Amino acid sequence: MKEVQNLLELLELEKIEENLFRGESSSVGSSRVFGGQVLAQSLYAAMRTTPEDRFVHSLHAYFILPGSLDTPIIFQVDRIRDGGSFTTRRVQAIQNGEAIFLMSASFQLTQEGFDHQINMPNVSPPEVLVSWEDMVEQYGEMLPENIRNFLNIERPIEFRPVELINPALPGKSSPYRHVWMKAKGTMPNDRRAHQCVLAYTSDYNLLTTALLPHGNEASFGNVQLASLDHAMYFHRQVRMDEWLLYAIDSPSASNARGFTRGNIFSREGKLVASVVQEGLIRPRKKK
Known about the structure:
CATH class: Mainly Beta
Structural class: alpha+beta
Oligomer: single chain
Order of helices and strands: HEEHEEEEHHEEHHEEEE
CATH architecture: Beta Barrel
Number of strands: 12
Largest sheet: 12 strands, antiparallel
Shape: globular
Distance between the termini: 36 Å
CATH superfamily: Acyl-CoA thioesterase, double hotdog domain
């Protein structure tokens, strides 16, 4: 996907029955469906069943089975509750009769209330940083082929990491990462579209942060990675066609699982969303 418009088209699910939708998949370099894709599509399906004046404020999801790129995904929405201020939906993503993904989401009317937030980290601006694509040009043949191929994949989102780690010689580092990100191309003036694209993007950079303290022992090819669950909170309005800072940390890794957190800030320093994810980071058995 070269532009965010391709992603928005992927999120436009086909309605096949009341509360039932069908979607296709697009590869981001893996043989499996990207977790951020099924997350964003499930959120879109839930949005199709909620009043237009209510916007998602939180979601909680579990990745159950790896999704196939070659099989359509069926999204079944359960209308759990429609209250005076909040609306609750549950979504199952199904392939071949089995649930591959479960999500609960809560929507809320826009309301006035108390307002505070933590400060955005003081980091270098995106204009002085290189993108993933630029890293390929910078390091070229120094990169292992699998990393070079990963960085070269056409994505609808541009990523510019603040901490530039040589992927050929990663070493061990603290489990903290800051990444600027922005949609490639023009986004519609639709609050829900920006929320769906942010949900899609939020699945990038999390689990790999949990690998940073383990250096070469947890490099690509030495570890099995898979998202297990994903929780997201939408605090304020967001625009994906403007630069956002993803500030990520990993407080813990144990029992073959990595725990990660992320705060997402606008360029002006507003905290627009927060994310929590746990994933499988299992060392591969040596042959």
